[in-house]
Amino acid sequence: MKDDDNDEVIIYDRHGDGKLLYQDSKHVGPLYVPKRFIPSNPDFYNNEKWEYVDEKESSINTFTEPMMALYVRRMSFVGAKEFLDEYDFIEWAGAQFKDLHEKSHWGDG
């Protein structure tokens, strides 16, 4: 299902209210997690969704250890100018907030 801006619409039902959200293509960015967290928590992290951060990107961001990245689009409520709470969004995207590197930026736009 798509909204007027051709962004994917999903049903978000964490709190039992079944609200519609859309992935906002105007607010995108990577979530960075140290590589060591991905295999150490296989019940939470879906390894297939994460990409290795290449040497160039690692150098630009001055990472001091190997990193994995998940490129995401921010989630907004349909019909409102309100984003999904960042903690709920990070969990929905497939990361744990506590594991995120400070260079993560998922709301750029």
Number of helices: 3
Termini separation (Å)?
A: 23 Å
Biggest sheet statistics: 4 strands, antiparallel
What gross morphology would you assign? globular
Count of distinct strands: 4
pLDDT < 50 stretches = 1-6
Q: Helices and strands, in N-to-C order?
A: EEHEHEH
**CA-atom Rg in angstroms:** 15 Å
Task: Estimate nothing, just give the exact number of structural domains.
Answer: 1
Order of adjacent strands in the largest pleated sheet: 1-2-4-3
Mean pLDDT: 79
Q: Helicity, in percent? A: 10-25%
Give the DSSP E fraction (strand runs of 2 or more residues): 25-35%
Structural class of the helix and strand makeup? alpha+beta
Supply database-style keywords.
17% helix, 4-stranded antiparallel β-sheet, single chain, alpha+beta, 109 residues, 4 strands, 30% strand
How would you summarize the topology of this molecule?
Elements: E1 9-12, E2 19-34, H1 37-40, E3 51-52, H2 55-60, E4 67-77, H3 86-93
Structure description:
The protein is built from three helices and four strands. The chain has 109 residues and is α+β, with helices and mostly antiparallel strands. It has one domain. A four-stranded antiparallel beta sheet has the order 1-2-4-3, with helices on one face. Strand 1 (9-12) and strand 2 form a beta hairpin. The protein starts with 8 loop residues before the first strand and ends in a 16-residue tail after the last helix.
